[in-house]
Amino acid sequence: MRFERVIEELAATKGVMACGVVDYENGMFLEGKSPSGMDLDVLSAGNTEIVRSEVKGIERLYEGKDNTEAVEDILITLQKQYYLLRPMRSEPGLFMFLVLDRNKANLALSRRALKDADRSYKQTN
User: Which of 31, 41, 99, 104 is placed for a possible disulfide with 15 were both Cys, Cβ 3.0 to 4.6 Å?
Assistant: First the structure.
C-alpha cells in the first residue's frame, strides 16, 4: 500500500485509538488502522467534513491577499479523546488523522508524529 509506512508510524504513537489517511476532496478513506475497533469509514467521513470546512474557511478569509497561511492541524478535544487532523503538505488534497486516548497520549508528541509522518512520506516518494 502507498501509505503503509505512514500508518505504521502513526499507529506507534502512544495512546492511539485510530489513525488514517483520507482524500478530503472526495472523502475516500485510503489507509488506516484502528487498534480500538473504531469504524475507520465513519471517522474518515466525519473528519473529511471538518477538514474541508476549515481549509475552505481559511482560503476565503485570506482570498485576494498575499497569503502564506494554511491549516497546519486541527485539534478536537472530547472528554476522553483527542482528534488530531493534519492536511498533508507532501500530498495536497489528503489529510492524516489520529484519534487518541486523552489519559495515555501526549498531545505535543502526537502533533509531532503527524508532522514527521508527513515529512517521511515526502522523502520516500
Answer: 104
